[in-house]
């Protein structure tokens, strides 16, 4: 971006050495308004590149040693001129899927498989290993590397009444299993945003368990507690290894509970054979499943 400044202003205004981006103007290098300095660089705004070699150039073998912002100042920031701050997540073929902000002074590329193996997630801010989602590549919604769903699709699968045993790994309620909607994929697109498939897979179980308990007890609080405890007990789907951590699986169960508590309300049952409560579906939209566990439904 080229800016034009008045020389008289530069000599009389004590703040004129700092321009639109807070970087210091150095008018002795290339004329008025054409050169900026940061801690580790000198940049020509007319060319959009630095005059000195990047001191971290060895970390970015695929880029020119004179590049700034990884040639994309719209997506990346570079406060001190050394390196952008981001993790670029790619498919196995190298195509960019989305970008996370890890808060580090380095730009990192990793595949979704590598990201998953580190337990990183971006969709539940209060759960462990959270990194904010910074941007989604425009091609993501059409990528053949992920499966694409609406929240209506997720709700439709979740609201089918099943026996709890069906949520075992590979069971009819295992959303992410081969032959089921998730079909063995690790990463899916729901409502235009990326999610781990096993995170979405917690929703059907949680909705089914919560509604069973709500119908049995008529109490949202009791249904919530029973669903959370069961989810923790069967953390791996088998009941052999419980999970009481603050991981995203448990956060997604709480998300589903929050939604189901608004999606259903109790009504008086017939009273026959212990039928004290019936459930009635409200107009609470499936799109509200997009709200994280700490957001109000």
Concise overview:
With 297 residues, this protein is an alpha+beta fold. It is built from eight helices and 13 strands.
If you had to describe this structure to a student in words, what would you say it looks like?
- With 297 residues, the protein is of the alpha+beta class.
- It folds into three domains: 7-71, no CATH class; 86-142, no CATH class; 147-290, no CATH class.
- It is 25% helix and 18% strand.
- The protein has helices at 7-12, 27-30, 112-117, 151-158, 197-200, 202-217, 220-233, 248-263; strands at 24-25, 35-38, 41-44, 49-50, 86-90, 96-100, 107-111, 133-136, 147-149, 187-190, 193-196, 264-268, 277-281.
- The strands form four sheets. The chain has a four-stranded antiparallel beta sheet.
- A hairpin with a 4-residue loop joins strand 3 (41-44) and strand 4.
- Helix 4 (151-158) packs across helix 6.
- The model is unreliable at 1-16 and 18-22 (pLDDT under 50).
Radius of gyration: 26 Å
Overall structural domain count: 3
- Mean pLDDT across every amino acid position: 82
Q: Based on DSSP secondary structure assignment, what is the total number of beta strands?
A: 13
Strand order of the largest sheet: 1-2-3-4
Stretches where pLDDT is under 50 for at least 5 consecutive residues are 1-16, 18-22
Assign a percent range to the helix content. 10-25%
SS class: alpha+beta
Helix-strand string: HEHEEEEEEHEEHEEHHHHEE
β content, as a range?
15-25%
Rough outline: elongated
The main pleated sheet reads as:
4 strands, antiparallel
Number of helices: 8
Quaternary form: single chain
Distance between the termini: 43 Å
